[in-house]
Amino acid sequence: MRFYKNQHQFYIGIDLHARTMYICVINNIRETVFHKNMECSRDNLELVTNTFGKDIVVGVECIFTWYWVADFCAERGIDFASVQYKCTSDIFPNEKRSLQKYNSSEVQ
Fold first, then answer.
1. d(CA 38, CA 52)
2. CATH label of the domain that carries residue 100
3. pLDDT digit string (tens) for the chain, length 108 residues
4. Which helix H or strand E contains 86, and what residues bound it?
5. Whole-prediction pTM value?
6. Any domain includes 77
7. Are 66 and 84 in contact (CB under 8 A)?
8. Exposed, middle or buried, 45 (CB in 10 Å: 0-12/13-18/19+)?
């Protein structure tokens, strides 16, 4: 399994659903600086990414709706990582919660 190892000033984790997305942004010292449930839209994602500048990475739990976020990031030169459920269970091995209970702050 390959892990994303680049360092950034801000890490944007998205718990993506069909109509909404929970966005959590942490800084490089692991402080939560933004956490909000928003409507899924390019405008909302652009608002968040523009707020935190160019030194960012976006991570999205890999479900069927993530392709538009990857395209959005590629168009803007933003690093993007899709996160598999297996990765989150490796990162949080003591957590026995179901996939639906993971939130965006745990996607990083």
1. 17
2. 3.30.420.40
3. 466 778 899 999 998 888 999 999 999 999 999 999 999 999 999 999 999 999 999 988 767 778 899 999 999 999 998 876 554 444 444 444 443 444 445 544
4. helix 85-91
5. 0.74
6. yes
7. no
8. buried
